[in-house]
Design goal:
mainly alpha, 1 helix, 89% helix, rod-shaped
């Protein structure tokens, strides 16, 4: 079982990764449109 602190850290990093990949996806699409 994860402790509450570990769970918070996991949740935080998970949303960071999700936001980060969304940003990259946005950039990728703009680069495609520029091409």
């Amino acid at each position: 079982m994860l402790t509450a602190d570990e769970f918070d850290m996991y949740e935080g990093s998970e949303s960071f990764v999700r936001i980060f990949s969304l940003l990259i996806q946005d950039q990728y699409e703009t680069w495609l449109f520029i091409d």
